[in-house]
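[Automated response] Your request has been received and processed.

Submitted sequence:
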Amino acid sequence: MSITSVEELSTVFIDSFLEVISTCTGIRFDVKSSEYDTGFSDITSAINLNGSKNGMLFISAEENTAKSLCSYMTGVSKSDVTDEDCFDAMSEFANMTAGNAKLRLGNSDYTFTLSSPFVINGKEMTLTTKKKVRVVSTTFASDDLEIKIKLMY
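Generated structure:
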C-alpha cells in the first residue's frame, strides 16, 4: 500500500473506526465535518502508535454518546452504564480501531506497535503539537450522537 500523506493514512483509520463502531454497536455514523479543531469532548480514549513513524489516535465523545455506544455494545441499559463502563468501551474502540488499521496497513511504511489504550476524562484539554506534526480530525454523527477521531502523525 502506497501512502504519501497523513490525510491518506487517516482514511485507513477512518475506515477502520467506522467498521469497528458499526460491528460493535450496529450504529452507522457519517462524516459531519473534517475541519480541524484542537478541542476534545467529555471522554477521550487514546492509543500510541509506535514505529518508524510514531503517532497517536484519539477518539472523543460527549458522555451521552459514550453511554449510548456502551449500551449498544454491551446490551446494558443506558441508565445502568457507569463511568467505568464508558471508559472501558471508549478504550476498546481505540484499541480495535488501531488494531484494524494496523492490519490494513500491512507492509506499508506505516507499521507500528500499539500501546495500551487509555482514557482522559474531561473537556479541559487541547492538543498542541510541534510545527511538523500533522493532525487530521474528523467528526462523525448519527442522529443525536456525535464522535470525533483525531490522528496525529
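Summary generated for your ticket: The longest helix spans residues 83-105. The first strand starts at residue 30 and ends at 33.
If you did not submit this request, please reply to this message.
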